[in-house]
Structure formats: structure tokens, C-alpha cells
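sry for the spam today, last one i promise. C-alpha cells for design, 211 residues
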């Protein structure tokens, strides 16, 4: 005789396995992206290239619509990992359409700055170091939007969204400065850049005037 309880139990176990495997999540190109998520993993956000889901307290996965975007992001995070850069999320695993990386706990830079009356000196110093680290890694986009910069524990900045870091060319932090201006912090930040590295300050001003 068939033991239907065993059959049903096996079916439920198979269904649970499917539900808990993030590889069953798919993202398809569209406007907006078309996301199919048969799992219980929480959607953290989505952008132009893919969607991010939380896997655990310290890991998340970004599922991409295009394989070439996986390769681009992987290249940057792998280079950062190989050089022990402190400004990029830790890279754990990659596949045909996904990258598993560190889940950043903390506010974005704009969220953090909302609580501050003045631009913190340590933030200015780390932004300078972060941009210099990007140049050391030979990224061509020496820039980052404030909303892609996270303030994690122990006052450390980390930056995400690197699909175009080796593709687009930003020789100075144009988007960073523009958006800090909208937040009311550009002048304060640039004043601190001048105090820390006058050569870098003059370089940015010169490049900005060339637009």
C-alpha cells in the first residue's frame, strides 16, 4: 500500500527546498524589472540591473537580469577583496545570474547626515580614502552616489553598486559632489578636502571646470 503521509511529507520537503534556494529567484529585464521570487527571502531593494534579497544577518544576494552585469560587479568586488580594501562589501559567492555579498547593516550616508549639524571630519577623511582606494584599484568611475554609501559599525564607510565602476569614466566624484550639494554639505566637505589634500582639491576643481 502507498503511504500517502510519506508522499505528502516528501512533497513538502521538496517544496521547502525550492522555497529556501535563492537560485530559484529570477529577475528579467523590463521597466520596472520583472521579479519572480518563490522563496521567503526578503526583497531589500531593486535598481536598474537587479534586485537584492537578504539571506541572513550578514549576507545578501543580488540577482541580475543580465549575465554581463554579474561579471562586471564580480570583477570589482574580487579586485577589492584581493587587495583587502575596507570600503567594499565582502564577496562570498557568484553564479551565472547572482552575487552573494556582505549585508551592510547601517544607514546610508544621507540618512546618517540627517542627524548631523556639520559634516563629520571622519566621514570626509574616509570619503577621500575611499576615492583614493578606487583609483588604486584602477576603477574608471572614481565616484559614488551618497545613497550607495553605507555607514557601518565602528564608523566605517562602504560603497555598493559597482556594475559600471570599470565601464563609466568619472575622473572626479561628480555625482558625489552634486548630491552632497543638494543635501547642503558640499561646501563643508570641499573645505575639509582642501585642508587634508590641497593637491586633490585643486585637481577636482580643475576637472570640474573642464565640463
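last one done:
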Amino acid at each position: 500500500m502507498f503511504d500517502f503521509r510519506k508522499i505528502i511529507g516528501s512533497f513538502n520537503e521538496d517544496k521547502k527546498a525550492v522555497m529556501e534556494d535563492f537560485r530559484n529567484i529570477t529577475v528579467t529585464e523590463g521597466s520596472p524589472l520583472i521579479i519572480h521570487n518563490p522563496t521567503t527571502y526578503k526583497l531589500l531593494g531593486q535598481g536598474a540591473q537587479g534586485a537584492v534579497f537578504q539571506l541572513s544577518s550578514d549576507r545578501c544576494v543580488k540577482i541580475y537580469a543580465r549575465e554581463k552585469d554579474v561579471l562586471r560587479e564580480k570583477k570589482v568586488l574580487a579586485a577589492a577583496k584581493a587587495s583587502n580594501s575596507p570600503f567594499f562589501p565582502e564577496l562570498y559567492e557568484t553564479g551565472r545570474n547572482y552575487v552573494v555579498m556582505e549585508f551592510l547593516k547601517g544607514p546610508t550616508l544621507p540618512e546618517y547626515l540627517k542627524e548631523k549639524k556639520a559634516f563629520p571630519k571622519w566621514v570626509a577623511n574616509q570619503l577621500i580614502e575611499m576615492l583614493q582606494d578606487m583609483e588604486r584599484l584602477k576603477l574608471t568611475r572614481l565616484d559614488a552616489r551618497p545613497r550607495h554609501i553605507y555607514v557601518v559599525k565602528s564608523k566605517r564607510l562602504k560603497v555598493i553598486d559597482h556594475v559600471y565602476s570599470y565601464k563609466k569614466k568619472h575622473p572626479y566624484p561628480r555625482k558625489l559632489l552634486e548630491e552632497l550639494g543638494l543635501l547642503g554639505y558640499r561646501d563643508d566637505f570641499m573645505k575639509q578636502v582642501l585642508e587634508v589634500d590641497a593637491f586633490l582639491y585643486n585637481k577636482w576643481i580643475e576637472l570640474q571646470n573642464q565640463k
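Strands lie at 26-28, 34-36, 42-46, 50-54, 59-64, 91-94, 98-102, 149-152, 156-159. ok im logging off now
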